[in-house]
Amino acid sequence: MVVLGYRNPSESINLVNRWRVRAGLRSVGTGAGSDTMVIFSGGSVGGGTAEARLMADHARTALHFEGHLLVEDQSRTTWENITNVVPLLESAQRIVIASQPAHALKARAYLRRQRPDLADRLIRADDYRFGEWMLLKPLLAAYGLWTLRGLTEAERRR
């Protein structure tokens, strides 16, 4: 399980990163075993503490996650997120990437580009729930489509 961070400008975890942690942890609960490793990925893009560290702390303290956890805190882009977590995914039976749905789709496409041999292990996270972000959905959808402009048509369908 990989949870991708979002630009965090302060020393406290922002709303988007809190939601991504929840989406990632609820995805762990969808048939994953107790040996599931959760990897929080994201560096200090917006300044201050790395996103991955803030998300890991939130998972432990606020959400009481007691499972296996790793922090990858050097990435500054989605491409780097994938590059930096690939060595941690080599032995994984299943690979789940949690973020907003469009961002997760982009990250899955990047994993397929970087390591096509791992692509068969990809499954979708439980990062879409009807009613979540209802007021922001149109804006998030437009932004998501804009960020996917670099993907091929085939990559957008996975």
Describe the structure.
The protein is an alpha/beta fold. It has 6 helices and 5 strands; from the N terminus they run βαβαβαβαβαα. Strands 3-2-1-4-5 form a 5-stranded parallel β-sheet, with helices on both faces.
The gist of it:
Helices cover 42% and strands 13% of the residues. By secondary structure, the protein is an alpha/beta fold.
Topology:
Blueprint: E1 2-4, H1 15-28, E2 37-41, H2 51-61, E3 68-72, H3 78-89, E4 95-98, H4 101-114, E5 122-124, H5 137-147, H6 153-156
Parallel strand pairs: 1-2, 1-4, 2-3, 4-5
Helix pairs in contact: 1-2, 3-4, 4-5
Please report the distance between the alpha carbons of the first and last residues. Answer: 17 Å
Approximately how much beta-strand content do the residues carry? 5-15%
> How are helices and strands ordered from N to C?
EHEHEHEHEHH
**Strand tally, please?**
5
Tell me, briefly, the overall form.
Answer: globular
Radius of gyration using CA atoms only? 15 Å
Main sheet makeup: 5 strands, parallel
Q: Give the helix proportion (percent range).
A: 40-55%
Q: Given the structure, what is the number of helices?
A: 6
Give the helix/strand class.
alpha/beta
Uncertain regions spanning at least 5 consecutive residues: none
The averaged pLDDT comes out at 86
How are the strands of the biggest sheet laid out side by side? Answer: 3-2-1-4-5
